[in-house]
Amino acid sequence: MAIDLAELAGPRHTAFLVMEMQRGVAGDLAAFPELAETCAERDVVGNAARAAEAARAAGVRVVHCTAAFRADRAGSHTGNSPFIRGLLRDPAHMLEGSGAVEVIPELLDAASDLESRRYHGFSPFTGTSLDPTLRSLGVRTVVAAGLSLNLGIPGLCLEAVNLGYRVVVVSDAVAGVPAAYGDAVMAHTVALLAARATSAELIAAWEA
Amino acid sequence: MAIDLAELAGPRHTAFLVMEMQRGVAGDLAAFPELAETCAERDVVGNAARAAEAARAAGVRVVHCTAAFRADRAGSHTGNSPFIRGLLRDPAHMLEGSGAVEVIPELLDAASDLESRRYHGFSPFTGTSLDPTLRSLGVRTVVAAGLSLNLGIPGLCLEAVNLGYRVVVVSDAVAGVPAAYGDAVMAHTVALLAARATSAELIAAWEA
Amino acid sequence: MAIDLAELAGPRHTAFLVMEMQRGVAGDLAAFPELAETCAERDVVGNAARAAEAARAAGVRVVHCTAAFRADRAGSHTGNSPFIRGLLRDPAHMLEGSGAVEVIPELLDAASDLESRRYHGFSPFTGTSLDPTLRSLGVRTVVAAGLSLNLGIPGLCLEAVNLGYRVVVVSDAVAGVPAAYGDAVMAHTVALLAARATSAELIAAWEA
Amino acid sequence: MAIDLAELAGPRHTAFLVMEMQRGVAGDLAAFPELAETCAERDVVGNAARAAEAARAAGVRVVHCTAAFRADRAGSHTGNSPFIRGLLRDPAHMLEGSGAVEVIPELLDAASDLESRRYHGFSPFTGTSLDPTLRSLGVRTVVAAGLSLNLGIPGLCLEAVNLGYRVVVVSDAVAGVPAAYGDAVMAHTVALLAARATSAELIAAWEA
Predict the structure, then answer these.
(1) What is the CB neighbour count within 10 angstroms for residue B37?
(2) Nearest beta carbon to residue C129 from set B73, B127, B131
(3) Which end of chain D has fewer surrounding CB within 10 Å, N or C?
(4) What is the mean predicted confidence (pLDDT) over A68-81?
(5) Nearest neighbour of D75 by CB, restricted to A73, A121, A133
């Protein structure tokens, strides 16, 4: 079915959610080399940045969904998943206040963007203010970019759909590990939940 | 790392969540032929049923996380994802009160099991009473079986981890479509969130 | 400020929430004599019933927010508040399946009303499907009637406002204990959160 | 029934929630004169500060539940309750970044306390990270102080009880408007949900 992006992602009811595009995840301080490589090959940062810029120009609010840990771990479930146990073997991993938790500069417009920071879990809605924030803004569609297709992006799509939002995933501004698995997640999980569009298609819709 | 199932899934703090093992999903009225075939090949229903029986014998509460639609669609987001639009092309799909929404009989002990029924979304925690139910029971670990590895099982794992639970997925009591994609989800998504154990391993731990 | 009830409670975006108007709370099996007396004096049941009937006639969905306990207490926090400890001294209090948990017959239209039953807590939104249900119906205003002004009604108003809904409380279809305290809650808490209208005013707005 | 404060508020499982004790609510920039007067008469700030100090000394985490508004109102429901419409008539009310939103200095230990800031609603749990934060810390009892008995404190108690926490309200570190109504809320609403103890009783329990 053809997607009517102009309607689906119409600026009056749309927000652009950027998932964990932080310096320590996909930027100059990236801790995940295989993911960083796929991001580089696909220009994930560049595609997300161009889409974010078009979003702002069209009046679509950009919300950075970021993750961090406090040094004392307050607010974080630190031992309840294999992934978190692995991450926290490095005591400095994504530490509040460090450069690693900053949004990648080319993706950020500090004057207009919002940030929804969480200290727990791997997806952006559960136990955060993201849903009330979007409701307060009249948002009914979320456009998603960022990392990763293993957890954060399908999690974002699932939570958003559960809450009643429509979702568009920017297909060239996401990545997973291994890269081919990321593509499979797009085809067999994300496709059930969300429309998929390239950054160029979104930019065209927002510039129209 | 070896998993200490006896501790991780200790009966005093564990619940067994059975995801959408309903007659219309994986039983005699199954609407998803490819999924049903994989379930049959792997004896997903049998493995889940044996694990559920061992759970009950050990004092682990079984909670059926089921899905249904009302004829008037109240409670359901009916148009916000490609999957839901596809499902609801059949006006009788998983209709409240029909046989399709019943738990597959060999998986159900109506006298002791709980049911958490939802009318919206594709994972069991968001917007339901499942979390308060588990908290009221003192649960800290959830063991998960059921369908599917495309949406429900990774969604269950993600929501549970976000909420602070530890998770074990019963590796021979789950399935996805295509089958090989389901295996990839276990390796590249579920493995980040949960321990994985066969039904035989869980039964052994619960019978010890 | 004059309230524009026709707009505020317009049928297309309004639901009528009836809080715990159950036989064991305010009906023939009422366990709270002082509350029952105030209800009788003010014809709370009659006023709520007439408002509910007008709601249905106008196309406003009626949702009964009910409470119950399972015999085995699964799903209920049983010891974390003085009130719950008092209630559960009676092992038969509001037992699932008993007449006490039924909605008072004159308030119920089983063919069209919805029920949101909870086993925990004292207000209707936290940890239930009420919010997704209302969102799926396009509801933006909730009209509230029922019991009591000590807990359930201010709790409903507060949760609803927190979630972004506008609220109208039916001022002659609510009650508290002591009766004068209920009036004070209307003046000093509910008035901050909600518009207040009599059942007659609402019926007039819905019949217009 | 006598309360065993040593057990109920035992430091290993307790957090101290300070509700909106901000300069613009009850401090030098207070916008609510009647509330400020009652606070002064009862030494609410002093009592809360002494209790907070004893909490920290006993290893009980202090969490400031604060409210603020962004200049552009993102994240806030701005028109859905009479109270919010009144507050926002002053465009500078509790503005993010202004002194009014700061925690009253004598109540704050910036090195150890946590803050849970919200931009919506009138109680601290709905749509915030407060519950995951407390769960991550192993908290099962919350001790509450702050403002006001009209909305925030009964709301905090209700949400906490709904979520399974036990609650203690510091009876001389809370206030409402009118003052006598606050006392009535303590007697007829808070008493159903929470134990009540003076700051001196709590300090004694924590120093024991």
Answers:
(1) 14
(2) B127
(3) N
(4) 96
(5) A133
Is the distance from CB of B146 to CB of B181 less than 8 angstroms? no
pLDDT digits (tens, 9 = 90+) for A179-191: 999 999 999 999 9
Radius of gyration of chain A (CA): 16
Q: What is the largest CA-CA distance in chain C?
A: 50
CB D45 within 8 A of CB D26: yes
User: Quick check: B163 and A123 CB within 8 A?
Assistant: no
Euclidean distance between CA atoms D75 and D72, whole angstroms: 9
Q: Which of A121, A154, A191 sits opposite B161 (nearest CB)?
A: A121
Q: What CA–CA distance (Å, rounded) separates C67 from C98?
A: 12
Each residue's pLDDT tens digit, D143-181: 999 999 999 999 999 999 999 999 999 999 999 999 999
B156 to chain D, minimum CA–CA distance in Å?
A: 17
What average pLDDT does this structure show over A39-46?
97
Kindly list the strands in the beta sheet with B61-67, ordered across the sheet, starting from the edge strand earlier in the chain: B114-118, B61-67, B14-19, B141-147, B166-175, B195-197
Is B74 in Cβ contact with C132 (below 8 Å)? Answer: no
Question: Cα separation of D57 and B109, whole Å?
Answer: 51
Inter-chain Cβ pairs, chain B and chain C, closer than 8 A: 66
Three-state SS at B16: strand
Burial A26-51 (b: 16+ CB within 10 A, else e): bbebbbbeebbebbeebebbbbbbbb
Whole-angstrom distance, CA of residue D18 vs CA of residue D24 = 15
* Of residues C125, C172, C116, C183, the one with CA closest to residue C146: C172
Three-point CA angle A55, A59, A61, nearest 5°: 65
pLDDT above 80: residue A68: yes
| Closest Cβ opposite residue D135 in set B132, B136, B164 | B164
pLDDT above 60: residue B1 = no
Say how many CA atoms lie within 13 Å of C165 toward its Cβ: 31
Q: What is the pLDDT of residue C1?
A: 52
Question: If contacts are CB pairs under 8 Å, which of residues 147-186 in chain C contact chain B?
Answer: none
Q: Is C71 left (phi over 0), alpha (psi -120 to 50) or beta?
A: alpha
CA distances from C141 to B78, C13, C19, D85, D152 (A): 21, 6, 16, 16, 22
Hunting for tokens 């969300």 — which residue is that?
A194
Q: Return the structure tokens found at A129.
A: 């203010």
pLDDT confidence bin for C3, thresholds 50/70/90: confident
pLDDT for residue B149 is more than 60 = yes
Shortest CA gap C44–chain B (Å) = 28
Mean pLDDT computed over C97-118: 97
CB B201 within 8 A of CB B169: no
Look at residue D3 in the predicted model and tell me its pLDDT.
84
* Interval D103-136: pLDDT, tens: 999 999 999 999 999 999 999 999 999 999 999 9
Distance CA D44, CA D50 (A): 10
Q: What amino acid is encoded at D78 in this protein? A: T
Cα–chain center distance at D41: 18
Go through the domains of chain B in sequence order and give each one's CATH number.
Answer: 5-207 (3.40.50.850)
Mapping DSSP to helix (H, G, I), strand (E, B) and coil, where does residue D187 land? helix
Q: Please tell me whether residue B146 adopts helix, strand or coil conformation.
A: strand
Taken in order A84, A87, A88, A94, the sign of the CA dihedral is negative
- Alpha carbon distance A136, D118 (integer Å): 13
Q: Check pLDDT > 80 for residue B41.
A: yes
Asked whether the beta carbons of residue A82 and residue B191 sit closer than 8 angstroms, the reply is yes
- Measured CA to CA in angstroms, residue C21 lies from C144, C169, D6 at distances of 11, 15, 39
State the smallest CA–CA distance between residue B136 and chain D in angstroms: 7
> Which residue on chain C is closest to B130 by alpha carbon?
C127
